[in-house]
Each structure stands twice: as C-alpha cells, then as structure tokens.
C-alpha cells in the first residue's frame, strides 16, 4: 500500500512521528512537508528529535494569507499526487496543510484518511474549525481520537468510514516521555525549580493578531504574580509592541522533548494551543486555556481545563486558584492509535 502523508506544522510533526514509525513496517510511505512551519525551532528540530523520516518532498510554501498559502499548497500537492499515485492521502489535524491536501486528494478521487477527525470547537470564527470540518466531509476514513469526536460526526450525518482509534498524540507522549525526562536539565538551566513556575504558550491568530487581546492576556499573566516561562512563538514575537513584560521569562521556542520536560516540571499550564491542552491532561497538570472555546471539550468536562478567554482578571484569578484534583478519565485511548490506523489503511 502506498500512502502519501502530508504535514506542515509543529503539531503535525508530533502526530506523524508514531504513525510513520508504524506505517513503514508494512506500507510504502511518501512524506510531504508543505513548509507551513519552516523555522528550525518550529520544524527541523522535530524531525531530528523524534526521528521522523526526512520528508521526501518539501514544498517550501512558507507563511502568508490563508488563500495564498492554501492555494500554493494545493498547486504543489496536485502535481505530487498525480506523480506518486498513492492508494491513500493521509492528513493530520486542522491546519491549512490539512485542508489543501484533503481537497486535492478528493478532487483527484484519491481516498483521504483524516487523523483527528470529528474534533470540534463549534466556533466557525476559527480557521482551524473550517479546515477540520471541510477535511472531515471529504474524507473516506475518519480516524477519531475520542468518543466525543465520533458523536460530533454522527450529529453532522457522517457515519461511513468513521473509526475510533484513540489519539496519536497520546501515543507520542507515552513513547517519548522517557526521552523527555533526559531533557529535564532545561529546568535547571533556566534557573527554575520544579513545581514553582507556570508554563505559558501563546500563538493563535485570534490572540496574537488582535493587539488588545494580546495586551490583556500578557497583563493577566503578569497580574497572577506567578513565575511564568513563555517559549515565544515567532508569530507572537512579531506582533508584540515593544519588549515582553519583564515579569515573564521569555525563551525561544523549544523542541518537543524539552517542551514535555517543561510541562512535567510546571505547576500549571497556560495556553491557547490544542496540543498543549492535551499534554497538560496527560500529565495531570491544571490547564488554563486562553480561548473562548476549545476543540478538546472533554478536558473541560473532566474538570482539568478551564476556558478564560482574554480577560486579564479571569486569567490572573484562574492562574492563582484553579487547582483540580481527583480522577482523570482515560479519554484519549490506549496508546496504540498508530497501529490501529495502519491496520485500517490496509
């Protein structure tokens, strides 16, 4: 079986790591990198650290407006799909790379398999929500991470080809957690004590691209009075007005293993990232989500994640007081999602 896998952004590299490792035991995989993320700290480091096969093709599309970026990807991917003639096109998550590959494959009548199908925030203002909905509705195999995702698709009338496989990010977390522990030196290097700091990430367009929201979020983080470490995404750094607040310990983006080490050592996590919300849940860390909605509603319902939007007062209050305890349901499968995906593809 020949499978064309398409990735382009940091979360997809993490998801592809366990899947590619399993796929290549029995299938021929052609790996395409769209170039959506291209900075070394956002791209190449993940291939090195996670031992992901070097992409067979890199489109080098880069950043840009949604239309130009997605259109550039589609033009490049159309040629590749015609040349490779795969049995499946495999896409991940909810980025423009996901949308471009799913649309190209569907128009060329090549079956599409969507990893992380059925995930919904129910907020159509988010470009990611548009991407995931469209990708699902043109896919032939909808590989769902949770039971909630399966139910979301059923409500939309999508039941054919739907399979509950679990979350490949949980596969990656279990596989790499030991290697991440070896990177715990980053905590000492930054002068931090385990359990004595909050870890923050901030990159979503609805936060980084709206000056008043960005200012309010940073003010809330400062108002918490906590020691906060912020690996600063290039998108957010480019939009900051002046230097970041001195009370926030800003560092360059880190790779997956060092990020897991920081998450493990943090007392709590503050984020607008979907993947980091899940990693916080895997680790049993309180998660304060800087958004008005989340695609991982299960973590909120379980009591380990709270949505605070961009209100500085809400952010500061949650950072000081949100400390869930008790049972965390097993929401994301058994750590063998990649094997199930490989079997479902033939």
Short structural summary:
With 346 residues, this protein is α/β, with parallel strands linked by helices. The protein has 2 domains: 2-164, 3-Layer(aba) Sandwich (Rossmann fold), CATH 3.40.50; 179-321, 3-Layer(aba) Sandwich (Rossmann fold), CATH 3.40.50.2000.
Mean pLDDT: 94
What is the total tally of β strands? 13
CATH class of the largest domain: Alpha Beta
> In CATH terms, what is the fold-level topology of the largest domain?
Rossmann fold
**CATH architecture classification of the largest domain:** 3-Layer(aba) Sandwich
Q: List the strand order in the largest sheet.
A: 3-2-1-4-5-6-7
> How many helical elements?
16
List low-confidence stretches. Answer: none
Q: β content, as a range? A: 5-15%
Estimated radius of gyration: 19 Å
Q: How many structural domains in the coordinates?
A: 2
Query: N-to-C SSE series?
Result: EHEHEHEHEHEHEHHEHHEHEHEHEHEHH
Distance between the termini: 7 Å
Give the helix/strand class.
alpha/beta
* Gross morphology: globular
What's the story with the biggest beta sheet?
Answer: 7 strands, parallel
